[in-house]
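Hey, I'm writing a tutorial for new members on how sequence and structure tokens pair up, and I'd like a real worked example in the thread rather than a made-up one. If someone can provide the structure for the chain below, I'll link this post from the tutorial.
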Amino acid sequence: MLDEPTGRALLADHGIAVGPWALASTAEDVASAVAEFGGPCAVKVVSPQVVHKSEAGGVRLDVVAENAADQARAIIGDVRRAVPEAHIDGMIVTPMAPRGVELLVGATRDPIFGPVVAFGSGGVLVEALADVTFRAAPFTELEAHEMIRETIASRLLDGYRHLPAVDRDALARFLVRIGDLVAVHPEIAELDLNPVVASRAGIVPVDVRIVIAPEERQS
């Protein structure tokens, strides 16, 4: 699995917005990054041995400048207790995402169809709702709009109750770029962006998980 900084850089190189973020090496660097962003941030450990960051105590939310260094030290302590063999490469700092619709965007490789993109409802209810549709990549913006309409999540995109309206064209372009990415990179075995927060501010993946296939599976 690629570390999250590398995964975010790969998405950005393909024109896929990932929002502002910083990689901090020390607790003091975390505090500086949070202060520079100027608002509450999420802080996540970067370690090849820690796949499920939350379960290992490697995530803190709503971190502010005044407590950022202490929160970063707490992350390091919790991770080392949970995964003693973990090598900690640093911590990712990102501003807290604005309120919006939580979506799932993913991709995998089907033995028959090749790269396939998944889209649907995301966040903590992703498994409970099982709201997901698929397309073989690459595909057009028209097909991306069809994907969006096929999901329950589609009902939330036009300003449902307290949620902000989402730019469906921007979301469709996001899906097309994900499809293009996995189509031109056969080494990507899995891609998991959950949640992707869609709001008036844009389409921003909160977590980025990319798995690279062994070389013998890339042919």
